[in-house]
């Protein structure tokens, strides 16, 4: 501990770790600010371009690494590793490998149109094609999403990592304190440097993240080879036929396969609690609540195309490209790096459960106890099966609480299984909520057996923390990526707020003034995000929270842009109609129509996955667009503006490399099918 006597070896080791960590983070940020010193943010004619788009001078390697560093942060290392530690396993890698294909298509379908129009923001395209109201209909939800969903999520996941890593150190172990510390640090950084500073620091953090993840994976497999087979067998998935003898004779990789895929691949993926089925499969059953195979056909492509092609936070880097060819080469380079990510994020997440399931339980128990302590009279709680298995006495207490609140008896026999007890507790909770429809907060939360979002922090704490000559690098890469991602998000949110809202309504064209306004928005947005971030600790999965929220926005906006690209006679008012129709349809399918369809037995599973809801809403908007185009087509096509200040020649080398990325992705799906 840092509070230990400075003369002890442990204190010296931690002191060394902290010093190297601080020097690395501050040094890289100083490099970014130094590299951005040539940008004239005070210029009345080009200040906004220099601050928000790095003077439109980013080369392919800056674009590529910046895309990866902006995307991969503790949001992935915490959220995606957590989902992998839970029942999804390798299936969660679809977000990465399908993104590789998506990036290639974005580089050759979306980027040429955006650069040709000379855009500052993605909503700006909608004004040129569909009108000012459509621009606002995208800009306002985009700001809300960036501030209250993505930025707050990254602040939370970064603070979650640090507080779990230093779980016994005052202040650093406090989640709320770390949320504010990380947010303020990031705001100061983007306030000074703008996008160019972000791009240069991303160059360092992007490479460091992949190297750091590989180091963690190396040590995880080394620990797996040393761990007792009798202990490891307890984390084996139920449909694996592996035995203790098999594990004793196996190499580290073979142990990983035996525990999670079986001796002959017999541990197929099944719908159920963590551990009920194999985890090394990209294709999940259609009944799966998060990633059914039906979602891989259509649903998952929607958030992928929206995120990589229409999300200001990501696309802003490509809008700052020196030329179309540079942007395309950078995008394809990023796509090739995406193929590596699951090996340094997802696989370590699976290993975290095999190696440290006890620590995951301890972290969950700490959260559960805090939730129970806050429980008010009349409130109820839900549970998962793992909670009943690991904390049977507390589960019995929750059963009594829910029975009292729902005014029913517990009605559960002494021989009931953990699955039956969990089902009864949750049914009583549902009845209590339905009995008090006008009261908010009747359901106080869900108690879980394992804190899966703690998977990666626990890996690093157990494997890397004892080695300060290595741990400082891992900490710097992860925390630096958090700061860099936050800076990029704040820069993007302030760009939209400044250009799509402030400049649009006031008519302000002085770019030096716009930079000052943008910096003011940075301060406002980081305060709002830091307030929301600690509240996210109540969620079971931060990754699912982010993806679920996007369903209200991404299908409609993606459909509208498709018509904007390929249907020049679709009426201008469809831009607003498509976005609104999606939001209404998604809400209906989430809270009313979807549950009704499931209850009537008209759906193929017991729950409509959010990706399936996305697919349904996407096609509803597409159908609406086709209908209005046939009924009320424009007399003449809309003419888009043309930016003649940038070279729009496509890259032949990027096309070839992009084709190789797509072929490799298909091969990986075949291997992990």
UniProtKB/TrEMBL annotation:
Matches recorded under PROSITE patterns: NA_SOLUT_SYMP_3 (PS50283)
GO molecular function: D-glucose:sodium symporter activity
Subcellular location: Membrane
Topological relation to the membrane, as annotated: Multi-pass membrane protein
Keyword terms: Membrane, Transmembrane, Transmembrane helix
InterPro entries reported for this sequence: Na/Glc_symporter_sf, Na/solute_symporter
Membrane spanning stretches: 15-33, 53-72, 92-111, 132-159, 171-191, 203-224, 291-310, 331-356, 469-492, 513-536, 542-566, 573-593, 613-632, 653-672
Top-level lineage group: Bacteria
Gene Ontology cellular-component annotations: plasma membrane
Family membership: Belongs to the sodium:solute symporter (SSF) (TC 2.A.21) family.
Name of the protein in question: Solute:Na+ symporter, SSS family
